[in-house]
Sequence to fold (191 residues):
Amino acid sequence: MRIILIGPPGAGKGTQSQRLVELLGVPHLSTGEMLRAAVRAGTPEGVEAATYMEQGHLVPDAIIVGMVRRRLQAPDCRGGCLLDGFPRTRHQAEILDDLLERLAMTVDGVIELAVPRDELIRRMLARKREDDDPEIFAKRITSFEVQTAPLLDYYGQQGKLASIDGLGTADEIFERVKEAVRRFERSARGL
Ligand code: AMP
Fold:
């Protein structure tokens, strides 16, 4: 299975992706994680990306696309993967479609973790990590609403979108995630 997980910052994507990759037995491709690793390692890509990330802005496509392409081509991704944090714009979704086509791969389904803005802010204030500057956090939510939310239409029109309620306990949400995966499996089998 090749699945994309979409959700605003603070929606609980981290927890759900960990559980999902375990369930599916596929690698977790998180562009946020890849970027943070590049920043820590001080690679040229990391140094450039850091200036955008610190401001809550999206990193230029040229950096992201190269990283994702290398990862998708790796042998452990032949049988599927969970894409988390990519694509984040309609343009990235089109680039991904192109990349996958060249590799004879497809997206089986897209899961949206839906959480209202005021709840995201409430969660952020409650957990208050040191990298959670409230202003930057609000910018990341706005970037999601403006740049990433249009992706939901893109995948909805392709009949690939499962929007699930991101409110509740991690277990409750994971039940909804599993239900979405079962739906993707049925449609992959043409049922
Ligand atoms: P995340 O952990 O997914 O919230 O990503 C952390 C930060 O990395 C984001 O705020 C962006 O600055 C950057 N980033 C992650 N994925 C992407 C992407 N697909 N396109 C552009 N920037 C990204």
